[in-house]
Structure formats: C-alpha cells, structure tokens
Amino acid sequence: MEVFFWIIVGIVFYSYIGYGILLIFLVLIKEVVYYFIPKKKALLNSNYQPEVTLFVAAYNEIENIENKVRNSFSLDYPKNKVKHIWITDGSNDGSPELLKTYDNIEVYHEDKRAGKINAMKRGMQFVKTPIVIFSDGNTILSHETIKEIVKAFEDIDVGCVSGEKKIYQKNKDVASSAGEGFYWKYESFLKKLDSKLYSTVGAAGELFAIRTSLFEEVEQDTLLDDFVISLRIAKKGYKIKYCPKAYASETASINIKEELKRKVRIASGAFQTFFRDFDILNPFKTKILSFQYFSHKVMRWIFVPLSLLFLFPTNLYLVNKNGFDYYNVYTYFMEFQLLIYLIAIVGWILENQKIRIKLLFIPYYIIFMNFAMFLGFFKYLRKTQSVNWERAKRA
Questions:
Q1: Distances, alpha carbon 342 to alpha carbons 168, 194, 268, 289, 346, in Å
Q2: Domain residue spans in the chain?
Q3: pTM greater than the 0.85 cutoff
C-alpha cells in the first residue's frame, strides 16, 4: 500500500510540477549542446511575406462582430496580403447579413448548423493562400499576430503555429476567471518549453495557424477539431511552434457552471482523441512528441484524476495503520491534503463573490477540472456529447 501511495503521489507531482522542472533541464541541455554544435535550420528567405487567410467559423456572434472585424483589419501586416473568410453556418441572429456589409470579407453561410468542424471543412475549399490562421469570433488578436506567425513559418519544419491564449483579468474575479487565468498562464509556460525542446503538443482554437497544404479532413464527430488538426500535423513529422507574441484575448466564463460545460466537452474530446490517435504514443513513430504528449496531456487526462481519487483514502489507511503518529510523514501529508480541500471548499463558498483573494480559487479550480474529466469520460462512453458547441456565457 505504501508503494502504491508514493506512485500516485509521484504521478500527481510529475504532471503538475515535475514535468515543468524536467522540461527546464532538458531545454537547458539542448541549448548548451546547440551552442557548441550549432544545427543549421532549414529556413525560407528572410523576406518571406506570403498571403494569409484569417479564418473565422462563427455561430451567432453578432455581439462580437464589430470588435472582431475592427481588430482583424488593424493587424500589422500588408492589407493586400490578408484575406478574410467567415463561415456562419446555422447562425440566425443576423450575423451573416451584418458581415456582408463590410468590404473585403468573404462570407459563406448555410442555414443548417453542423458543428464547427464541418464549417471548417466546408470553408477550407475557399482558402487559396499558403497559410491559414484560425481564430474564434469572440477573441481579440494581438497587433503583431500575423507577423509573428509568418516569422515562425520561415522554418520549413514548422507545419503549425500555436498562438497564446490570454484571459482578461480583473481585480475582483469569480472562480472561473481566476482559476482559468492561472491555468492558462501555467499552460503557456509549459507550451513555451515544449516548443523549445521539440514541439508544442497541439493547439487551441482561439488562435492557431497551419500550412494550407497540410490540412486534412478529420472525422465529422470530432470534438476537439483544433487540437486534432494540429496534432495530426505533428504526427506527420512537422513541428508545432508556440508563438507567445501572437495571442488571443477573451473573457472567462461568467461563472463556474458555464465553465463546467466547457470543461466537460473538452474532457470528452480528450478521451476521443486519446483512443482515436493512440499511435501518437508510439515513440518509434513520433519520437520526442510521444514523450511530450504522454507527459503533458495523457497524464492529466487519465492518470491524475484516477490518482486523486485514490490518494486520500490510501493516505487515510496509512495514517490509521501507523496509529495517527503526529511525526509520521503520512500524517503530515494527510494534513496537507485536508488543507488543500479546505481551501477548495472556501473557494466554492466564495465562488461568485467579488473578492481579491484569488489564491483561494486555484485549488478549487484544479479539483473542479479533475471532476470535469470524470464527467467527460462518462459522456464520451455514452456518446452523448454533441459536435455542436454549446457556447459558455462569458463575462
């Protein structure tokens, strides 16, 4: 039982902290080696400035269109080299009509709503540029987004570029905002290191770009279209470059209930991806990517939720076995767990109160995410998760 206890402790520690520490050392070793034995990159010419397409698949985003269009037209890149395509399938709020009032925007609309992945498939036939940049209708892109993405594509080994996701932070945040903001800051840190070591593991739909020639249709029931499209490009041997200067900003879910809907869908899609693209874990095929995928994604999807489920009862058993000795390491660990759960409970109680102690929301959000993984797993087994996004209400 003691061996089992330390194994599950090791799993949780490695997934949340240890992998990041290991990445720091691996990247440092790589940079030292490259300093003494420089490797010449296969680069395109330094004047590389291709045409690009800004691609937005949007469903009923009329309240965001004005800001999104203004932002898209203001990005720092030659205007004559930027094509704008919007796919508005199923929208019935007047957004297709509003978009058609703008010059230089191609709007393609069908009355039937068939999910984002099908909108992307249909829209890609209209993309004629070598690079396509995907973003959501409710996100605002950084001024230098296109320049930074194009710069990353100068390396011919790069097949996909992942932008950074930023959550608007307020002095007084609810649990969903404080927790999600912290989560994405840490995720960004890991993605930077992953990219420096070899390749970022997948991209988020808020902002990512691919070489148009590498786009392949994925299954119609795909839940995490952005992640799967980018991951399969990496599976072919191309790298996913992380570009923190190219970022998309959005507000967090308005409350934890809305965030739960989002997390359960993502969790369900994670299990779908795991079983459908299991061959990514084959190191003889995907090499370093398999290690990064397992450590960064699979551990969090499967091993951490299961470990947390067994950690407390196993700890309680060992404390009881040792007679509740105050100086026993298992007693200290039990007290630490109780403290974390107590903070999480306080965070739950204060969930939607306007307070400044964001630290209270972090343990709550971590436990909440692992709870969502279980819900997502059962939803995946029942095949009840719709391919159509049920959009979370945002602040």
A1: 27, 33, 28, 38, 6
A2: 1-40+157-395
A3: yes
